[in-house]
Specification:
- Chain B: It is a multi-pass membrane protein.
- Chain B: It is found in: Cell membrane.
- The structure holds 2 protein chains of 2 kinds.
- In chain A, 49% of the residues lie in helices and 14% in strands.
- Chain A is an alpha/beta fold.
- Chain A has a 5-stranded mixed beta sheet, with helices on both faces.
- In chain A, helix 2 packs across helix 16 and helix 12 runs parallel beside helix 20.
- Chain A is globular and about 100 Å long.
- Chain A starts with 6 loop residues before the first helix and ends with a strand.
- Chain B has a single domain, classed as Orthogonal Bundle (MetI-like fold).
- Helix content of chain B is 77%, strand content 0%.
- In chain B, helix 5 runs parallel beside helix 12 and helix 11 packs antiparallel against helix 14.
- The longest helix of chain B has 49 residues.
- The radius of gyration of chain B is 26 Å and the shape is flat.
- The two termini of chain B are 52 Å apart.
- Classes of the chains: A alpha/beta, B mainly alpha.
- The interface between A and B is medium-sized, with 29 and 26 residues.
Chain lengths: 457, 317
């Protein structure tokens, strides 16, 4: 039997043994490899969980990695950009990638992804999507089309929403329309019975017969909503055969004509594009305008919290409502527009697999619903519709109807720029500098001069 | 006793030392300025020229060297004619109404009254120049807001009984950018003209008074001739400054409505940084540099600036 000769030796041996044991036990910790994945996200109060859910997803992914016995652990570093909108943000990010300082993942408006794909900055995701059906298998198929470039899928849909014309029922009543007419407007619009010009006529009645100053208001900067009006007049902006941008002079002139008639009728203010965003919202939500062309998320983000519109469904629909973009002519097709925001992975990320799995977890139904219900965005998976929280958020459930007729902006690398030209055309028409026909010519001239491969008909 | 040869040697050493000192002084005093000029003026122009011959786009990549940008400038950009015309109106209007004329009026009136009051009014006119651009323009946006809350509309509607609020941003955007820029630009002329008026010998005014000259005669026959050089300087300097400045316009009207207030410098900015066409922006910017040089040379010649910069001659009274 082994005996310790003295206490000191025993103590030393115990310390040595203890130290070795602690070292051996701690070895797995030392062997853990921290993988930092950088996420570029615009500071956007309308969707803080777009980035927040990715941070949360890291915890889930790390548990999964631990269960697999992998030494890797993911840490998400969010890099926030102060850009005003998604267009500015995309331009800034393209420069960042251009100088080799791009992040591993980024959040973008879907129409920009092909600009990144064209320059080789975005990772092609088709194989990964097929490999992880547990994450991506149930995402609405229609949303995937917003994530595609000509040669494959380059993004993961993060949310969707619906664009519409909100309207103030009190003003319509004051203008002499009865409840039956007012309440039938959404249905009549969906069936193609209510037209864009009738909408102007209703707005005109409101301006003439009530104290309201404005008939129809729209956003005062470049963005997606007014494209809905162009869609109503048949402008799809992309040639289905080649994928190139397509400009059709007559259809453009027809859409500009609607804005022109709106201003001439005193319904759309000539200075709409010079007004401030918040001022426009205030005019509508405080009862000084009949219609407001915008997105469903404005209810949760602005109308309820800032202007105190009733949050309860029945109370809301007593005085407020919305319709899709009406058809151009009787019996035509109504329009709505959804503008998905997407997650994109950088082509040169060192850990593409981990980035895909991370965004897969961020796309989990419960996390996506957190984002959807707190910011009034539409979810990306059918199972979210079963979530009681989603069902409680009635604007989402009601706006989902519009997805049947919804369209996307073209996923063309040059569309952002074309949209700027179209917006300038609207400014020209509304401020009286251009006629509708001149605006169509202006868009075609500018686009032909500054963009490539534009098809003009 | 030193020989002639020794004296010559000493003199030569003296010349050599003085030449060496001159060279050292040149390097010490002008060296930093030359380096800075090359770094911040010459080099950017060279880079601009180089970029203008590329297809540098929004992802900062060059795939080819091309003259395409210049073809765009000369052949396809129909917007340019309007932009150049507007720039002329903006520069000429701001200069003529505010930077020179109003600056002159401010200088003459504030030097004609008591010194304390004069200094106070000049201080007030310097305030916009000292306040941050964004704050200054925010005040303008409030002043010209097309609602009843706007300052101008409050005055017009309450004091003059106007029925509906005016929308100056849409109906008079050019006037607004000229006025908002002019309020700032006038202060520089005011300071320079004030200094020049103070430099006019007092006895000239007394002599004129003895000869029966009134206020306007004194201004016309004494003050204005004495201000010829400052006026020339302010005109040339402010022309060049106005040609390249656009920040107040961007903040106030964003260049709109439509392209109504898009001056050349703002147009370059929009093409390069809002559309991501950096190569094209560089080509346009090069023309701005050329226009600036041409304007400076014309001004130099027209105002005979060479004489201004000559060594002053001794005045004989």
């Amino acid at each position: 039997m082994f005996h310790w000769k003295n206490g000191t030796a025993a103590l030393l041996s115990a310390a040595l043994a203890g130290g070795t044991a602690a070292f051996v036990m701690a070895t797995p910790l030392f062997a853990q490899e921290a993988v930092k994945l950088e996420l570029w996200s615009r500071q956007d109060p309308s969707g803080p969980l777009r980035a927040g859910n990715v941070v949360k997803a890291a915890e889930r992914l790390n548990k999964e990695l631990e269960a697999e016995g992998s030494p890797k652990r993911v840490e998400v570093v969010v890099r926030e950009s102060p850009a005003k909108g998604f267009d500015d943000d995309a331009l800034q990010l393209l420069k960042v990638f251009g100088i080799g300082e791009g992040p591993d993942m980024f959040i973008a408006a879907h129409e920009w992804i092909c600009a990144f794909q064209e320059d080789g900055f975005a990772l092609k995701l088709d194989d990964y999507i097929a490999k992880y059906p547990q994450h991506f298998g149930t995402i609405f198929p229609s949303l995937w089309s917003s994530a595609k470039c000509p040669d494959g899928t380059y993004a993961i849909p993060q949310d969707a929403e619906a664009r519409m014309f909100f309207y103030n029922k009190k003003l319509l009543r004051e203008a002499g329309y009865d409840d039956a007419f007012i309440d039938s407007m959404p249905e009549r619009t969906l069936s193609g019975d209510l037209t864009m010009d009738e909408l102007l006529e209703i707005a005109k009645q409101v301006v003439e017969k009530t104290n309201a100053q404005y008939g129809v208001l729209h956003r005062p900067n470049k963005g997606p909503d007014y494209i809905m009006a162009f869609n109503a007049y048949g402008n799809d902006f992309v040639d289905p055969e080649t994928g190139n941008l397509l400009l059709e002079r007559d259809k453009l002139a027809a859409a500009f004509g609607w804005f022109e008639r709106g201003v001439k009728a005193g319904v759309i203010p000539a200075n709409n594009t010079a007004m401030e965003f918040d001022a426009l919202r205030k005019e509508f939500y405080t009862g000084n305008a009949a219609f407001w062309m915008y997105g469903i998320w404005d209810l949760g983000s602005v109308a309820f919290p800032t202007y105190g519109l009733p949050q309860e469904e029945k109370a809301f629909f007593e005085d407020w409502g919305w319709i899709a973009g009406p058809a151009a002519e009787k019996g035509g097709s109504p329009v709505s527009l959804t503008h998905p925001i997407v997650y994109v992975i950088a082509a040169n990320t060192k850990e593409p697999e981990l980035a895909v799995r991370l965004l897969g977890h961020a796309s989990a139904a419960d996390l996506n619903t957190d984002h959807a219900v707190t910011t009034t965005h539409l979810g990306i998976k059918p199972e979210q519709l079963e979530d009681p929280r989603y069902a409680e958020a009635w604007p989402l459930a009601r706006a989902t109807d519009l997805l049947k007729i919804t369209k996307f902006l073209p996923n063309n690398a040059q569309f952002g720029e074309l949209n700027g030209i179209i917006y300038a055309g609207i400014q020209g028409v509304e401020s009286g500098r251009l006629s509708a026909q001149e605006a169509a010519d202006f868009v075609i001239d500018e686009a032909s001069a500054s963009l490539e491969d534009v098809i003009v008909k | 006793m030193a020989t002639i040869a020794d004296e010559l040697a000493i003199e030569r050493r003296g010349h050599a030392a003085s030449a060496a000192r001159r060279r050292t002084n040149f390097v010490i005093f002008l060296g930093p300025a030359i380096v800075l000029t090359i770094l911040f003026f010459v080099l950017p122009v060279i880079i601009d020229i180089a970029v203008s011959f590329t297809d540098l786009g929004r992802s900062l990549r060059i795939t080819e060297f091309t003259t395409e940008q210049y073809q765009k400038v000369f052949r396809t950009d129909r917007r340019l004619t309007q932009v150049i015309g507007l720039t002329f109106i903006y520069v000429f209007g701001t200069l003529a109404i505010f930077n020179v004329t109003f600056g002159l009026i401010l200088a003459i009136t504030t030097t004609a009254i008591q010194n304390v009051s004069g200094s106070f009014f000049r201080g007030v006119w310097l305030l916009p120049r000292m306040s941050p651009s964004v704050l200054y323009i925010l005040l303008w946006l409030w002043a010209v807001s097309p609602t009843e809350a706007g300052l101008v509309n409050q005055v017009l509607m309450r004091a003059f009984g106007l029925d509906t609020p005016l929308d100056l941003l849409t109906t008079a955007p050019i006037a607004l950018i000229i006025i908002s820029n002019g309020f700032i630009g006038a202060s520089m002329g005011m300071i320079i003209f004030t200094a020049a008026i103070r430099g006019i010998p007092e006895h000239l005014f007394h002599a004129a008074a003895v000869d029966g000259a009134g206020t306007f005669a004194k201004i016309r026959f004494i003050t204005l001739p004495a201000l010829r050089w400052p006026i020339s300087f302010v005109t040339i300097y402010q022309t060049l400054s106005l040609l390249v400045s656009f920040e107040y316009i961007l903040l106030l009207t964003k260049g709109g409505p439509f392209y109504d207030t898009t001056v050349y410098a703002l147009y370059v900015y929009r093409r390069a940084f809002e559309s991501g066409q950096y190569g094209y922006g560089a080509a346009l910017a090069l023309f701005l540099i050329v226009i600036g040089i041409v304007v400076a040379l014309i001004g130099w010649r027209f105002f005979d600036m060479e004489r201004l910069l000559q060594r002053p001659r001794i005045e004989v009274h």
